[in-house]
């Protein structure tokens, strides 16, 4: 931890550390006040006291956002870890009552996982934890390590190759892929062979990767498909394919759900690809939190339904 100058810790108001933590998470006084259930002037006064005690502006306004200073970023991790240790110590032996909890969980996932997971999870929470709040952020292809370390995210659900040892990983589901085209597509009959697949114009749901499983396999065979449109959104992809002569490769469960709603016909890939895994990932340090463990258990239970 950096030197914060001479200070008598016995006279330091430790409540200010909680305000500091939330301000660094939200980077906005109004949102921090709402999260702390305090008035905005109270949080502003606390920030002014922190600035004086730590001899640093801590948060600097840039446009509509407040940017943490280098000193604030250096203090953020140790202070958050200390608060978490205190919380875990004080809650030893306590039970978590989902039916009464008003906790907010922050998750990240792709729109594919959100459409696959959330309907079932929300049905479960409606009965078991009606006052819980879920805030879902978009997920890129790489693990959002900084957001998890800083507590800006509680957990993520996605497909990851490798994760650092300080994280816990639970297999949620394994999934295969299927091809979707509109019903009555002029180039597709009763079957879809490799030659026809390569002649089609393709839409690719792009998640930040250089190339996906399909293009990796094709490249290994010295083949290439014609991609004429990319989008990061599976729902948009399904609608576009239903109204054009493009085709798209989708996760099987999602493809079947879209085919129930849109005029789509589905085909197996004309070559064999291994299934891919989707995992629930969170910090191992938070493994003793009963609330987080409960939510992870609910998410994992969906895969068994």
What does this structure look like?
With 305 residues, this protein is an alpha/beta fold. It has three domains: 9-90, Winged helix-like DNA-binding domain superfamily/Winged helix DNA-binding domain (Arc Repressor Mutant, subunit A, Orthogonal Bundle); 104-171 and 278-302, D-Maltodextrin-Binding Protein, domain 2 (3-Layer(aba) Sandwich), CATH 3.40.190.10; 177-274, D-Maltodextrin-Binding Protein, domain 2 (3-Layer(aba) Sandwich), CATH 3.40.190. The protein contains eleven helices and twelve strands. The chain has helices at residues 15-26, 29-36, 40-54, 70-90, 111-128, 145-149, 194-199, 213-220, 234-242, 252-261, 290-302; strands at 59-62, 65-68, 104-109, 133-138, 155-158, 167-175, 177-182, 201-205, 226-231, 246-251, 264-268, 276-283. The strands form three sheets. Strands 4-3-5-12-6 form a five-stranded mixed sheet. Strand 1 and strand 2 (65-68) form a beta hairpin. Helix 2 packs across helix 3 (40-54). The model has no long low-confidence stretch (mean pLDDT 87).
How many domains, in number, for the residues?
3
Number of strands: 12
Most strands sheet = 5 strands, mixed
What is the correct CATH architecture of the largest domain? 3-Layer(aba) Sandwich
Query: N-to-C SSE series?
Result: HHHEEHEHEHEEEHEHEHEHEEH
Distance between the termini: 47 Å
| Overall radius of gyration | 24 Å
Spatial strand sequence of the major β-sheet? 4-3-5-12-6
Write down the CATH class of the largest domain. Alpha Beta
- Could you name the CATH homologous superfamily of the largest domain? Periplasmic binding protein-like II
Q: Write down the overall mean pLDDT.
A: 87
Helix content: 40-55%
The portion of residues forming beta strands comes to 15-25%
